[in-house]
């Protein structure tokens, strides 16, 4: 049965248990580029089960998560039922670049973590950049993370394995990769692939939208072959 990435994230999947490992690696490094303040308002695009909110909810003024997965949003809302400054909003799977739930707000920090590779085309990514620009406060920073910029899926996997070895998590990573190979994920990846955008095209899109952007030199996630784009407003 044909399926899309949108369908994949609506159901239980192999990343539910492993997602936090990559996120913890990211959290150890992100504040070198995004210093936090108690006055900051944070937008988390593709918030999943709320890992970023778990880490930052008591360190900033407010946080808003956006996700197409009602399942993830239900998990995240349950985790933060006692946090009045944390909100999770459902995005319409058929109109997921419409950020209507937060259209009248401005944010000091905007995080897009491991999301863009599941978009369908460059036009959608440019719409994302425009949407970020509309909700960014003066002097805001946006970080679009875990970007696939190369042509080889195998090199991406090899990068994950090398970093996992250095982190002492090689066995767990190998188990996850085997599970993915024989799961619904493998079928969806074969049918839909990933959106791969070269660095030069990212910078060109940012220039067209009127954004000041640069790639961060050091890796921020376990996927060492992937890149991270910092936008300053």
From TrEMBL:
The Methyltransferase domain covers which part of the protein?
Answer: 42-138
Q: Per the record's keyword annotation, is S-adenosyl-L-methionine included, yes or no?
A: yes
Q: One GO MF term, please? A: methyltransferase activity
Pfam families in the record: Methyltransf_25
CDD domains xref list:
AdoMet_MTases
Q: Mind listing the UniProt keywords for this protein, alphabetically?
A: Methyltransferase, S-adenosyl-L-methionine, Transferase
Q: Does the keyword Metal-binding apply?
A: no
Q: Which GO terms describe its biological process?
A: methylation
Q: What is this protein called?
A: Methyltransferase type 12
* Species name: Spirosoma linguale (strain ATCC 33905 / DSM 74 / LMG 10896 / Claus 1)
């Amino acid at each position: 049965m044909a399926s899309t990435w949108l369908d994949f994230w609506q159901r239980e999947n192999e990343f539910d248990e492993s997602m936090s490992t990559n996120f913890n690696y990211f959290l150890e490094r992100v504040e070198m580029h995004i210093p936090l303040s108690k006055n900051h308002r944070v937008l988390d695009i593709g918030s999943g089960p709320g890992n970023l909110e778990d880490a930052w909810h008591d360190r900033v003024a407010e946080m808003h998560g956006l996700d197409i997965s009602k399942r993830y949003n239900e998990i995240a809302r349950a985790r933060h039922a006692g946090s009045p400054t944390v909100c999770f909003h459902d995005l319409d799977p058929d109109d997921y670049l419409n950020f209507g739930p937060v259209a009248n707000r401005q944010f000091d920090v905007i995080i897009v973590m491991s999301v863009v590779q599941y978009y369908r085309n460059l036009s959608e990514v440019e719409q994302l950049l425009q949407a970020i620009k509309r909700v960014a406060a003066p002097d805001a920073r946006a970080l679009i993370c875990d970007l696939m910029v190369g042509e080889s899926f195998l090199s991406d996997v090899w990068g994950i394995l090398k970093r996992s070895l250095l982190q002492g998590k090689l066995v767990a990573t190998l188990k996850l990769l085997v599970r993915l190979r024989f799961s619904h994920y493998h079928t969806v990846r074969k049918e839909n692939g990933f959106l791969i955008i070269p660095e030069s095209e990212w910078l060109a899109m940012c220039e067209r939208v009127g954004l000041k952007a640069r790639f961060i030199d050091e890796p921020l996630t376990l996927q060492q072959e992937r890149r991270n784009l910092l936008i300053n407003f």
